[in-house]
Amino acid sequence: MTRENTPTPHPAAEAADASEQMHVRMAKRAKLLERGVEAYPVGVDRTHTLAEVREKYGHLEADETTGDIVGVSGRVVFIRNTGKLCFATLQEGNGTRLQAMLSLANIGEEALAGWKALVDLGDHVFIRGEVISSKRGELSVMAESWQMASKALRPLPVLHAGLSEETRVRQRYVDLMVRDEARQMVYTRAAVIRSIRDTLHSHGYVEVETPMLQLIHGGATARPFETHLNAFNQHMTLRIATELYLKRAVVGGIDRVFELGRIFRNEGVDSTHSPEFTTLESYEAYADQFVMAERIREMILNVADSLGTRVLETPQGTIDLNGEWRWLGVYPGLSEAVGREITPETGGGILREIADEHGVKIDPKWDPQKTVVELFGEIVEPTLLQPTFVYDYPPAAQPLARNHRDKPGLIEAWDLIIGGMERGTAFSELIDPVIQRERLTEQSRLAAAGDEEAMQLDEDFLRALEYGAPPMGGIGLGIDRLVMLFTQVGIRETILFPLLKPEVG
């Protein structure tokens, strides 16, 4: 075992050492084959998982035997070869560990010598033997035979030195081997998605799949990835949202519909943004923004319950999901934060002054509506720790939301902010095909003027609305950001295999 005061190896020295170890391990692989032994057999005679052995025999007292013979397998994560008695710790996929003991008396000289000569950290091995408790009370399998299940040619990383964040995300398979937190993230994310599906199914929603390759860039304001379909000699994009196809389904009579899937946006990469990420979009006929607020609150509370807590400790403070989920208007919220009244009629000059005062960078070409949204996002949003529905947006914020039923110059849409970050959004959906055509036409003009995020005019979507869409509400929920909320890590840690720059050299 490495002592705590051993200096961390230099990366170049580690690389050279790893290369040398690979040569040694390749030689051991060759020895196995020379002996007519499979280094990578098609399978082993496993009778129990390590977890099953722990569950069934965890009650054993120190130095107790059972007479029960089991066959177990796992990755060797610790090994100590001491004369006539060898010890190893096996680990299986979920992180469960179990000790294996190999004694000269039980397996014989040849098998024990083979173990010492051929087995390394990282190998998968099969152990057949009796379940016992060691003299120190450690649940173990006392081997009567062993077999190589898979020879590892690369050494495991130096555990005491830890893995760099870059290594963790670039070689996630190594991260999963050595860090309990990495494996737990996989199960946490799966639990979040399962809970969301269960909540929607309980309300009669139907899960569908919509195209990832699309002819028309729409459903959100974002820069798409572009590609080419050779079969049609057609320019295409990867979807930036699932919205427009899901709404087509509602038009066709699927009154409650959702999709959980990957979205692709050709934008920046940072601790909260990834070029590919996972969203939930759901649409419900005869619902509005307030019904959808109830839906998302129920989804998030059910997720919290599935993970065991509704109270989250964060660096910014304690988030209590049991508390009030308040509603905050964009204009009143911004007015309070900057100390002067801002309304839909406030001009661009005043808004630019406010931006300068608060150090917010804005594009001079932005109209007042877009500027207000940017100011709110930079000044107010980071301060909203507790769940807050930010609503009463200007129309430019969401071209697919309907006009407000009571307040001219606003739309019926909200963003849910928790922990100073947007987690989801919802609208009372725009179903008037005439107004929708006007909105998309304006978007197409922006696109023609060089706005790479603006939507294109989607004639087929408009045709669907012209057949008559029922009133509906819709939700967009970022799965990655929801996992971030409950785990307090960056987006790259929540995605199993995030997109990264190619390795250099």
Short description:
This is Lysine--tRNA ligase. By secondary structure, this protein is α+β, with helices and mostly antiparallel strands. The chain has helices at residues 11-34, 50-57, 104-107, 109-118, 165-170, 172-178, 180-202, 243-251, 289-307, 330-338, 348-357, 368-380, 433-448, 459-466, 479-487, 491-494; strands spanning 65-82, 85-91, 97-103, 124-133, 139-150, 206-207, 213-214, 226-229, 234-238, 256-264, 276-285, 311-314, 317-320, 326-329, 388-391, 413-418, 421-428, 472-478.
Globular, elongated, flat, extended or rod-shaped: what is the shape?
elongated
Low-confidence stretches: 1-9
**Architecture per CATH nomenclature, i.e. the level-2 architecture of the largest domain:** 2-Layer Sandwich
Report the CATH superfamily of the largest domain.
Bira Bifunctional Protein, Domain 2
How many structurally independent domains?
Answer: 2
* CATH class placement of the largest domain: Alpha Beta
Instruction: State the secondary-structure class.
Output: alpha+beta
Q: Oligomeric state of the chains?
A: single chain
Average pLDDT level: 91
Query: Strand arrangement, largest sheet?
Result: 6-10-11-18-17-16-15-14
Which fold does the CATH topology of the largest domain refer to? BirA Bifunctional Protein, domain 2
Radius of gyration: 29 Å
What distance separates the N and C termini? 32 Å
Count all strands and give the number. 18
